[in-house]
Amino acid sequence: ISPRSGPGEDADSMFRQIFLIVLISGIILFSNLGAPRLWDRDEPRNAGCAAEMTSRGDWVVPTFNAELRTHKPILLYWLIMAAYALFGVNEFGARFPSALLAVGSCLLTWSIGRRLFDDRVGLWAGIILASSLMFDVAGRAATPDSALIFFSALSIYLFVCGTTAAAQAPVASEKSWFPHSRFLVVSMYAAMGFAVLAKGPIGMVL
Q1: What is the DSSP string of 10-23?
Q2: pTM exceeds 0.85
């Protein structure tokens, strides 16, 4: 963005970058998402657990093969159950939450890079993440990793918002080592809480 760019041009540039990141990450993460059968051992267990909970109408007790399943916290099952309600009990529904949250992680990465550095850094950071192999593996699987990544990135984004000024703002406002806004602090810890619900205490550590 040139120094002479006006607010309208800034907004147009921002929307173009959002569109580009969503387009690239969406193509990578959603293409043929439901075609492969559930693989490894985690996908079938996670998807099957959510299917059993859906069939019982039970949002509290996770079971797999009619046995209590406590290997992971419950957030992933809730997300898959919500997707099942929209798309049916199938491979696409089981993987949809992971893919959607992975797109969100790319947008959060763009936002962090844009805020800390500039538009170009944010754009390339989002594109690089969207095209990273293991990130895409997590984003195309019915496992809790994509949810963990998203909520960890969200907590980092909220921390950055509370401790830095935007790249275009005066440097004089960059004074804080911890967010002073109560809303941002509560939101940051809430995001960390969801990360814990996704994959356990590692969500707080990260």
Answers
A1: HHHHHHHHHHHHHH
A2: yes
